[in-house]
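User: My collaborator sent over this chain with a note saying "see what the structure looks like." That's all I know about it. Can you take a look?
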Amino acid sequence: MTTSADGVEIAVEHRGPSTGDRATRLVCTTGWANERSVWSTLADDLAADHAVTTWDLRGHGESDAPPPGRYSREHALGDLAAVLDEAGRPAVLVGHSLGGYLSLAHTLDHPDDVSALVLLATGPGFRKAEAREEWNTSVKAAAAKMDLPPGVEEISLHVDSYVIDHLTEITCPVLVLLGERDRRFAASAGLFERDLDVRATVVVPDQGHMVHVKAAAGCAAAIREFTADL
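Assistant: Without extra context I'll predict from the sequence alone. Here is the result:
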């Protein structure tokens, strides 16, 4: 466990070498409503030659669940910073869905912390308020059907267009990974290729949103090829 700035205990797990360099130190952040166990197969593979850190978002898995009102983007980014305190900087930030969005936001705020980004099934948020509201409504509806701590849906809500508006300020190398059937995030891949230093975009055939789980070996191979060139 590591402790975030506001006292929340965050569950962290390390695999592979006890230390890594800027290309082989990986910090993996999950999507909303996932636990760090979703990384297990991928992380076990990469740990052969990478120092891999996985962690649970607040209100998820073995991390503490604070009361409602403490699940903002700023809270989640504070948690990621605490994980990096333990894992070491700079690191390659590997993020799935919400985890990729948080990785982008952290890179904007702390570029020296990040040697590269791996974005799996990730979007950069929405410029239009109507699109944000549509997304937020869907998140709240999904949360109502899940057994989640009260207020945890806030961590997946979009309140501004900060990340998408500042994408071009991110200069580190980027790998984009997504499933062929994950149509919601296909448009984001094109935006990333336009605005970021994308070294490769890998579309995994016959896979959906959980591409890192269903096609872990292929994702690990793509990440390993990417980090070898950093």
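A starting point for your reply to your collaborator: Helices lie at 40-46, 73-87, 98-109, 129-144, 162-165, 186-195, 211-214, 216-228.
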